[in-house]
Task: inverse folding
């Protein structure tokens, strides 16, 4: 399918290849229907990074990494009340349970 798509639209084929594993992971964990709309893209992270940029881009020099981490933590706490909940947020406990089950299976297999 990816080869056929590459002939029609190389950019779409690259996007498919980039997100395929994550999309399949959502299916495998059984949360695609409830959380897929929000978690199958990087829009959430891109939005947060852009908002953080407005608070940190003008700083040219950090004294050390601790200062940068404190600044980012403060900015995230400041942004939190302005962020929207992801669609299907009420099913996040199901995602947590599925991840824990997957991790325990992986640990047992290793």
Result:
């Amino acid at each position: 399918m990816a080869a056929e798509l590459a002939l029609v639209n190389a950019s779409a084929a690259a996007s498919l290849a980039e997100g395929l594993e994550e999309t399949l992971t959502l299916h495998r964990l059984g949360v695609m229907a409830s959380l897929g709309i929000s978690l199958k893209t990087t829009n959430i992270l891109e939005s947060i990074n852009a908002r953080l940029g407005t608070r940190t881009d003008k700083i040219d020099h950090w004294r050390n990494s601790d200062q940068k981490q404190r600044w980012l933590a403060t900015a995230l706490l400041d942004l939190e009340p302005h962020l929207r909940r992801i669609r299907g947020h009420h099913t996040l406990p199901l995602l947590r349970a599925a991840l824990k089950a997957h991790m325990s299976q992986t640990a047992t297999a290793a």
